[in-house]
Structure formats: structure tokens, C-alpha cells
Amino acid sequence: MTINNDVLRERISLLGSFLGDAISRQTGEETLNTIETLRKGFIQQRREPNEANKQQLIDFIASLDNRTLKNVIRSFSIYFFLANLSEENYLREQRHALRMQSDQSWEGSFLRTLLECRERNIEPAQMQELIEQLKFIPVFTAHPTEARRRTTMNLLQSLFTHSDALNNLAEDSFAYEQAKEKTAQTIDLLWSSDEVRTRKPLVYDEINNGLHYFNASLFNAIPKVYRNIKDAIVDIYPELTDYPLPAFISFGSWIGGDRDGNPFVTHDTTEMAVLMHADTVLRHYQVLLKKLRRELIHSDTIINIAPDVYARIKAYATLDQKVFYYNPDDYNNEPYRRLLSIILAKIKATNRHIQSKGTDLDAAHDAYANPQELLEDLRIIRKSVNTHDKAHGEGLLLDTIRLVKTCGFHLAALDIRQESSYHSDVIADIFANASNLPDYQTLGETERQEWLTRLLEKPGTPLIYTDNLTDKTREQLALMNSVATLRKLVGQDTFGSYVISMTNNASQLLEVLLLMRFAGLCRVDDAGQLSADLPVAPLFETIEDLKNIDKILPAVLDNPLYRGLLAHSDNTQEIMLGYSDSSKDGGIITSAWQLYSAQQTINRIAAEYGIKTRLFHGRGGSVSRGGGSTHNAIAAQPAGTLHGEIKVTEQGEVLYAKYANTDTAVFELTMGITGTLKACSTRFVVQPPELPNYEALFARLADAGEQSYRTLTDHTEGFYQFYSQVTPVQEISLLNIGSRPAHRNKGLPSKTTLRAIPWVFGWSLARFTLPAWYGVGSALSSVKEDEALMREMNSCWPFFNVFISNIEMAFTKSEMSIAQAYSQLCEDEGSREKIMQAVIDEHELTFSGLNSLLNQTSLLAHQQNLAASLQWRNAYLDPINYIQIELLKRARQKDTIYDDGDLSVEDPLIRSINALAAGLRNTG
Q: Do 908 and 886 form a contact (C-beta atoms < 8 A)?
């Protein structure tokens, strides 16, 4: 897909002119002149670098007060919003143009993918089997790289609609002038509203932000995805025209369920999240039912309606009388509308029942017991409508049915996540309060497994005969009881998995199962078989834990009781792989290699034990946290490691980038689904003949890369102090971005205690992007004699090709001149010079290594569209970076981020973080 950059620049320029008008009108010409001075000055610097001119710009920034800097930052931040929106809209138009050409479509589209399947001799029965086993599960998480307010997101959504009209109307038309006026008015509102929060977000805010994307795009996108794949099936596999699609999309969420290191997520928060999920989806069903009631106006005085429709109305006679108390004859000859009115009343009652937590008995009487009952009512209507009006039977009615199959009453399955040592502490407390149990803390791993298995084998719900429990234990038991209650209230799909982070022993899975027993979430039947309502998913995230999978998994699978539990769970073990911590721990290359090897290890162990696995990929937005193209990443997984199902986290600013509007959401979901389809088919995932040689060379690359990375980050004296001073990481933890603390544990901050997200975020903002590439240059240099083999790997091995492509993109976002400017914030001159020299040397090695491997003279020479996008962004990012450096100096001179002057320095500082995140796009 080729981008006409002239057209795109023209569109961005038009929106930019509206922004300039708004700034001039609301803030004054002087502010606009200041902004223009910096904008033009840094653009000129990019074209013709001049140290004296650059210093003048830096001095000019230093002369500006906080309030002026706030306005300057806001202008660039909003400009990036507008540019991103224009770029997104333009790409959507390009995809639409391709779709309109019957013989073309984009890489990853349903049409192209199914056509490739047919060309690879995948028969209709095989295609049906692939779709039957398909399950694509995006899981939304709250992370501090997305500081955008919901108000701003709503404005940008409106702006997307207005600018879309602007781009597709004749400039001499009245409609164009109207669209222009609406666009200008919306940008005016954007400038006059606050794009960042003035307070630290609550978990409630984060839940609300996650739910925004369902109303903004996903409720419309989900049915479109099903419709698009069905159209492609009919085109490419006409033999499957009558094949009813299964619901292969489902959504998950961690927002309100992820309590790992976040003291603000409690059992009450989890309950709130579930109720908000249910309220969102049930209110949307009401909107759809009202639309259907306006559409299905067929009269039985004109056409024949199926008897089942009347029978269902009769079955709801009591509720029917209640709904039509005002006029018993209303819709008497329009049975679809009558039944839809009853269904609408039942949906309202269902929501009241759930929101009352089961206390509203009148609502409970009229409520649906489960989504299947709603689906049955809708299918009765559809079956009848299809006998006389196929268009309406296959229209909104079918879309509604597919949405209900996908979202149920729970909307998105809430995963619970907690760190492994937390459960161990709780179990130790319970053991300490039971006279017949040993001191858990002193038990070895084998003894722990034996005692936990013994307790799990006991029938009945275990009881606790003491009130002398720690607050931590009480909270954990309260959580388990809340989960049990909410599953009964909302449905069995309300919760997804129980994820155990930092899993390093088999006993940690058994600990969670024992804690479930206290709430009846886990039980033993009369035959001694164990079953659980939530699957327990170990999360392997450090390099060491990834290497130890071949010890941990067999240890738990050798337990007969646990194996019996899997037999009750479709014989499937979910396993989560953490990209973030493994990359922070050992560097990007060894992280990629260990994740690749871990998947092969898991596949081998699953085959040995005769079980299935579902891999849950904990990917972030940045490359160092597993970011990049979802389609390519999934399709490039090791052969045989995907078995139809994949879960993948959607984090930070990625949520907005993917799901801000319907068309983009359709595109992103499509890319993920087709990537999964390809990865599950042996016709696509064919191992290269030279794979053993490729893997051996990558292992050497990983060893060399890890050694280089650890030498800098673990074994260089003063390195963490350097990092904490030259990046905004200290300020990130204090600003109003995320509810979760930046460090896992209290005490002396270090690389080990710092979470992966602020680690990556800080390096990205300071334009080092160090976690995404450091060690790559040394690794490539260490195997220079095998460069011909590496080029072959890049051509023949999708895993390596995707890895190198992502590294190149992330590396291109690093700017050593700006990183050098940030490095001056380091107080220790000796450390600064030593560390910066190491960074610059590795940067040069990486630059030459990538270009040599890719046989090019400039970065992204083979990705011209991306290169052009990054190039124009740099000139607008530069002033924000230099402003941020100035603000960091001001904040730290006061030994606080607050300033008693005209405006606190905190205000423009948080805006600079928001602006850089908008401009860089995948910072965390």
C-alpha cells in the first residue's frame, strides 16, 4: 500500500491551520508566534543542522515561563492528535480503495488470506476446521503510557467523522463548507478543553476508559468483522456459504482485576469492574433492540409469521401484560415488535438484577438467566423473518445475535492477576492459624506440593476457625468470594483466567487452587476428581523463569490431581508469556530468543503429556515489550505452537491507536484473526529446511546481546542513577497518568524493582529507546562472518524477519543528539561520560549492523511509508524534548515537581509526557 505523502501533508496542514486559528483567537497572537518560532526553527535544524542556531532555540525555551511552555506543548500535542487522525483516516481510505478493486486487497485482509489458503490447497472441510478451532482474544489493560482523557477521545472521534467528510467532498460544495466549519469548531473545542487529567486517575477512570472503546467502535466493529469474513468465505469457499460462523472473537480485560503491585485494586474494585462491564453491554443491547423494533414492522395481516413467535409471546404472558399495561392491544398485529418489547423489558430487568447484586427480586423474576435465553428469543425472530424477508433477517438482527454470542452479559472476561509470593504469604498465614498444619514458610518445594495436594484432595469446602488473619489474607479470601458470587450473578464467562505473575514453582499453581476452594471455586467430586471454575495460568516473565519452564510445567503436570483438573477444562492449560520483564531483565535479543524457545518447550511438553495449550502473549506497545504488527507477530510464531487460540494484551496507547474508531478497529481485529489463522495452518507455517542452523545462530546472537546489555545495565556502576536522572522516570511515578505505582516493592529503587512499563517509557521519552535495541549491534558484530546466513534467515524465516523489522523501526526512533542533551541531567560527570560512550558505541554498531544486514545505506530504506512518517514527526518532537529537559531542570532545582510561581512546573511537565507519547505513538 503506497502513501501519497503530498496528499497526507496537505490534509494535516489544513487541520493545523484550524488549530493555529484556535490558538490565535483563544490565547493570543504572541503565543502563536512563539509556537511558530520553535516549530520553524526546529524544522530548519532538521534540514540544515547548526549548533549556534540550536543553542538559540534552547535559550529561547529557557526564557519562557511555565504558562507559555504549557501552551507550546499543548499546541504540538494537539497537532500530533490531528496528524495521527489524518494518517489513520488516509490509510483507511487506501484500504477501502483496494477493497473496491475486486482483484486486490491488502495483506492480512480476509479476502487475501482466504485466497492464499485456497492457493495452498486448503480444502473447504479443512478451512471449516480451522475456523472451528479459531479463538482470538484481545485483553485490555490499563497502563501509564496512555494519559489521554475520555473527553479528548470523544472529541477526536467527532473530529475523525468531520475530517472524513472534509476529505471526500468537493471543495466548491456547500457540504464541504459545512464540514469545514464543524471541523474548525471541534478543533476549537479541543484547544479549549484539557487533554490531560488534573488528578491522578482512579481505577474507576481506567475501567471507564477501557469501556469507552466498546461504545466508540467495537460494538459496531465486531459484527462487521463477522460479516467481512463471511463475505470472503462465500467468495473464496462457496462450498461453505451456509456454514454458520462460530463466535471466534472474545474480549478480556485486566482493568479492575490486575492487582499485582497495585494496592488500589481490591475485591470491591473487581466487583465494580464486573458491574460496569455488564451495564455497558446491556445498555447497548437496549439500543439495538429499539432499532430492531423500528425495523421489524411486519404485520401478520400482510405476511405469515411463524407460530414460534406467538408461542414465545404467550410464554411471557405475565411480563407481556406488564409491558403493555398502557394499551394491551399495542403491536397486536406486529408480533416481532411485541416480542422485541418484551425482550427489551427482560434486558432492562437483567441489568437491574445485576446492578442490585441480586437484591432486586422483581427484576430477578423478569431477568434472563443467561445469554443463551436471549439468543434463543432472537433466533426465533430471525428464523421467522428469514421466511419472508431475508434482507432484514441477515441484517441488524444477525449482527445483534453475533454480538450477544461474543459479549454475553459480561462484555469482556475479567482476568485476575496477582504476584506469586502474595499467595504464598496468604497460604503461610492460613497454615500458621491451623494447629494441624506445618510452618509453610519452612517447607521445601516438594513438601509444599505434597501438603497442598493433600488439602486439595479433601472433600467439601475448607473452613477457617479463626479471626486472627492478616489483612492480606482477608482481602484474598474476600476476592475469591466476590468472584464466586459474581459468576453466579452475571454468568460463567464473567471471569477469564487467574494469572500468577512471577511464577517460578509448581506449588504456586496449587496455592491458588487451594485459595479457590475456600469460595467453592474449586472442588473435588465423589470420584476424587478436581475441577475449578477459573483456569490457573502461570506467567513466565523473567529470563530465568522462561528457561525453567521445562522444570516447572512437568512438575505440576506430574501431579495426578492437577492432570485430572485439566481433563475437566478441555484438557487445556493456559500459559502466559511476559515480553516486558524478560526484555528489561536480559535485553531485547535474549528476550525474543527465550520467548521463542519457551513456546517450543511448551509445545514439546504438551505433546509429551497429551494436553493442549493456549498461549497468552503479554505484549506492550513498544518493541521492547513485544509491540509491532500483531498480524506479523502472530503469523511468525514458532511452527506448531498455536492451536487455534491466542490471547494477547492490548496496552497503553495501543488501545487508542487500534480502537478509537470503527474502521480501524475492524482492520486491527481482522489482522489479528488472519495472523492467527495463518499461524494455525501447517500450509502457512512451514519450517525452513535450514531452521536448526538459523536457531543456532540466533542463540549465539542472544548470548552476545545479553552479555552486552547486562554489562551496561547490571554491571556498570551508577547506571540506575544515570537512568533515573536522565529520563523522566522519577516524574512519571508522581504524575497523574496511571493508578499503579511505578515500582513493584518499596525500598531502594533499582532496575529490579522498577516495572517494565516505566522502564521503557522513560527511555522512549528521552529518545534513547535503549531497551528496544541495546545489544543488537554487539550481537550482529559478533557473528559478522555469518552475515550471509543472517540475510538468508531474514528472507526465509518469518520469526527473524519480523524481529529485525521491529528492531529497525524502534531503533530509528532513537535520537542520539537529543539523548545527549538529556544525559546532561546526570549529576555525576564520570558516570555520564562512561555510560554515554557505551550507548553511542552500541548505537553506531547497531546502525551499521542493521544496514549491512539489510543491504541498505539508510534505515527503513525498504519501509518508505514508515520512514516518511517518522521523518516529519522528528521535527515536531524535537522542541517538546528540549522543553521537557528544561522543565526537568526546573522541577529538580526545587527538589520537587511543584513550583510556587505563576504555574506549577508539574502542569507543563505532564503535558510534555503526553505530547511525546502522542508523537512517538508506541512508547510503552
A: no
